[in-house]
Design goal:
The protein has 14 helices and 23 strands. The chain is of the alpha/beta class. The chain folds into two domains: about 160 residues, Leucine Aminopeptidase, subunit E, domain 1 (3-Layer(aba) Sandwich), CATH 3.40.220; about 300 residues, Aminopeptidase, CATH 3.40.630. The strands form five sheets. Strands 10, 11, 12, 13, 14, 17, 18, 19 and 21 form a nine-stranded mixed β-sheet that branches. Helix 3 packs across helix 4, helix 7 packs antiparallel against helix 9 and helix 12 crosses helix 13.
């Protein structure tokens, strides 16, 4: 009871591959969805594709599900073997209740999240069985099913000798059951970008501006962070012109690109410092969002800016108490060299205004205080624009990659503008109080645009087990929310 059963139409043990004489590369798997039964319903509640598949095998799938244990709960799965000549294994996944929608309390679409979690579980189970090709039931929402499959199967193992078994997922797109009527998921919104920088250089208007250019732009705050490292800073500028009107004001995305953050002279504790290789998460999010927008051919102009450098301790590094001058002429007292992200973003935000932007959105793994405040549930959003907040919030409800609005009060501005030596201090007057809020208030001092938002993504930088369709490690959040936001913006006047 509760164990997967095998129906072997071609003899053998019922294990995947036992009815195939060819190599493992000939095997295919299938992921199908089933809803939780209603109280007065004694039958199995299939998705449209699953019901059609069950009819094609004369009701055997329904029979096996009834015999194999209690009804499948959300995110749980069972695998059956030998049901169909075209599939070595069929994973049936629980989608939860049918007909659920947006949950106001959770601020996401329960139906979409359930599909992502369930499809991810099924694909991973077939990957463990070393099934190289998997067809995926759209479960009523092909986009969410595609995201669940691709995100669930992805794991960064490029540097490992033992790698995860490679799987090619495809989305089944035919309402009636016709095996292999599929859509390759690489063309869906969550496209994986391997060999990323080479791809950028070859496919987009990308420029890597050297230190001499940064100096010519008088980005003194940015340069002050980079001077402690042996590696020179590089300012990445990426243009995507998707609008038929090339003069359309662009959406400008700015990402913090600290490629390693030791804390500088204000050195971080050694425990957990290895995770600071991901302090360029904002830059990665921005670049990934633009690449995806281009792959989708969104009719919008987007510019991505990413100041890249290391924050390292050395004889040349910033020292607490130093005063530096930003691009807009404001002076900054650097009392904590580990508050470096806001320094490089200050100059990048000043530069962003030179493009007369429609809106400016920056993303940064900026403060540990943001992780303390919200954890991994949502990225914090600080904005001067109600319209921009509403657009970002709506996008996050659709993607399930949530954002939450945080205060941008003058109360916090006063804490960074009261400095003994300069116009601004790079940490708040009360450094442990409202750290995420004072960091946002600092950034606002370099913004004149009417529509600006700062996304502090420190809390969502990694995934342990909070998001079921993401593996452990660096999460890539909130890329999908930025893409959805850009897609909606592209349709608005």
């Amino acid at each position: 009871r509760g164990r997967p059963l095998a129906l072997c139409s071609h003899g053998g043990t019922g294990r995947p591959g036992s009815r195939y004489s060819g190599s493992a590369e000939t095997l295919s798997g299938l992921v199908l969805g089933v809803y939780e039964k209603e109280k007065d319903d004694d039958g199995v509640l299939f998705t449209e594709a699953a019901a059609s598949f069950d009819s094609s095998v004369s009701g055997k799938l329904r029979e096996l599900l009834s015999l194999s244990g209690p009804p499948l709960k959300l995110g749980k799965s069972r695998v059956f073997y030998g049901l169909h000549q075209d599939f070595a294994s069929v994973a049936v996944v629980g989608l939860g209740k049918k007909g659920v929608g947006v949950c106001g309390k959770e601020n996401w679409d329960n139906c979409k999240e359930n599909i992502r979690a369930a499809v991810s579980a099924g694909c991973r189970q077939l990957q463990d069985l070393e099934i190289p090709q998997v067809e995926v039931d759209p479960c009523g929402d092909g986009q969410s099913a595609a995201e669940g499959a691709l995100l669930g199967l992805f794991e960064y193992d490029e540097l490992k000798s033992k790698k995860k078994f490679p799987v090619t997922p495809q989305l089944h797109v035919c309402a009636s059951w016709e095996p292999h009527t599929v859509y390759p998921l690489g063309r869906i919104k969550i496209r994986p970008c391997h060999r990323f920088l080479r791809w950028l250089t070859n496919r987009y208007n990308a420029s890597q501006k050297p230190q001499s250019w940064i100096e010519s732009e008088q980005m003194g705050a940015y340069l002050s962070v980079s001077k402690g490292s042996e590696e020179p800073p590089v300012f990445l500028e990426l243009h995507y012109t998707g609008s038929p009107d090339s003069s359309q004001a662009p959406l400008v995305l700015v990402g913090k690109g600290i490629t390693f953050d030791s804390g500088g002279i204000s050195l971080k504790p050694s425990s957990g410092m290895d995770a600071m290789r991901a302090d360029m998460g904002g830059a990665a999010t921005v670049c990934s969002a633009i690449v995806t927008a281009a792959a989708l051919k969104l009719p919008i102009n987007i510019i991505g800016l990413a100041p890249l450098c290391e924050n390292m301790p050395s004889g040349k590094a910033n020292k607490p108490g130093d005063v530096v001058r930003a691009k807009n002429g404001k002076t900054i007292q650097v009392d904590n060299t580990d508050a470096e992200g806001r320094l490089i973003l200050a100059d990048a935000l000043c530069y962003a205004h030179s493009f007369n932007p429609r809106a400016v959105v920056n993303a940064a793994t900026l403060t540990g205080a943001m992780d303390v405040a919200l954890g991994s549930a949502a990225a914090g959003v600080f904005t001067n624009s109600n319209w921009l907040w509403e657009q970002l919030h709506k996008a996050s409800v659709i993607t399930g990659d949530r954002v939450w609005r945080m205060p941008l009060f003058q109360h916090y501005t006063k804490q960074v503008t009261e400095s003994a030596l300069a116009d601004l201090n790079n940490i708040g007057k009360y450094s442990r109080s409202g750290g995420a809020c004072t960091a946002a208030a600092f950034l606002r001092e370099f913004v004149t645009a009417n529509h600006w938002a700062h996304l502090d993504i420190a809390g969502v930088m990694t995934n342990k087990d909070e998001v079921p369709y993401l593996r452990k490690g660096m999460s890539g959040r909130p890329t999908r929310t930025l893409v959805e936001f850009a897609a909606v913006l592209a349709t608005e006047p």
